[in-house]
Hints:
Among the domains are: 130 residues, Rossmann fold, CATH 3.40.50; 166 residues, no CATH class. It has 17 helices and 15 strands. The longest helix has 17 residues. It starts with 15 loop residues before the first strand and ends with a helix.
Amino acid sequence: MFERIFLHKLSKTKPFLIFGAKGSGKTTLTKQFGSQFKNVIHLDLDTIADRNIFFRSSNPEEVLKAISFLKEKEILGKETLLILDEIGRSPETSRWVNQVQSHARPSIIATASFQTEQTHLLTNPPTGLMDPVFLPPFTFEEFIMIMDDQAALDAYREAPVPVYAHGKLLHYFHIYALIGGMPEIMMEYAEHRHLKGLHPVYEKIETSFLQSIENMNAGKTRRKLAGEVLQNIYPYASTRIHFKRFGNLEKQSREMGQAFRMLEEAFLLQLIYPVTSRSLPMHPDKKRFPRVQVIDSGMVNYFSGTQKPVFRSQDMNALFKGQIARQIAGQEILATEIKNDGQRLNFWVRDKPQSTAEIDFLLEYQDMAIPVEVKSGEPGRLRSLHQFMDMAPHPFAIQLHASKTGIQQTQTIKGKKFFLLSLPYFLAGKIRGHLEGFKKFVEI
């Protein structure tokens, strides 16, 4: 098993809490991190036996001794790593982490498949004891690593990407978009290099998602509705939604909004609210209809029945009004923002009644809000981009499509000149790196 690129975010200097959906690879990451320690003690707080350890005594030092005794491992101070898997299942464990202050206290790393009040307190700056790390599904870069193609990986990491590598990287990206980045799917595909056999794995992953919802601290009715929303969400990936009667479920906006928030707390989707400003800071308008970013494109394709069209496609922007391309681009951008300590996506709508102008993503870069359009076609056809750039305080824009990298100076319908960086959509996760060179190039 290769090391995930998020491993570098972990260090021995402070406890970490790794957030991520069930099945996103949190436990594997903690075990990889554990290779740096003399010994590792693993507590699975999904199990009653390990949760009960924290009920044995009100004295945090006595609990530490109980952990050592029951797991039959000596605690060697900071040279022992204590893994607290699924800490969200045990409020008592969260309280213990805040209380234990012994000089013999081990290094601690925890995981959580959903947010709780206790995990929020543990990671809430500036008083939070633990640093949060948000773990997404595998990225495209990690997919190439799994494919064990060093030449393709080297080319992907170049800026700009060599022209000769475009075809292979595009092919790889279409496979990646098709199957998604859930670790269990990746491992199955890496072993057999075939789509056959993946279907039961998708079903298993969704079952684990539903189980994660069942473990959340909410009433039975709310948990049931959240599960129903999850099972209906996939065809709506990367589209704007109404809460009221979503998915033909006869529920009002308030109930449905609570269900969606539960799915956000379980890291299974993100509700992206639009911004109307063309400059920083970006303030999402929660009175407007949000767009849904689902956790993984592979889950979207399997449960929406879109695997065959994606498999046959040469340009995902041509499928379903660009929905799949926008979903996977958002997935890659979000993973990049997580690595840069951001957590949310943004998109833009024009602040004018009856306007349909939208920009797929806004990326905060230096002191600018950079528009990113996931669309094919010549610059003159990107009408929403023109409307954004007419009032933008900078001249930089990005287009993601299936074609090769290019830079051109163009102008809006009203005649404002701007610079457009066109990137193949397999570079959605590398936009920031290419922006550096793009900005320097056009400012020469």
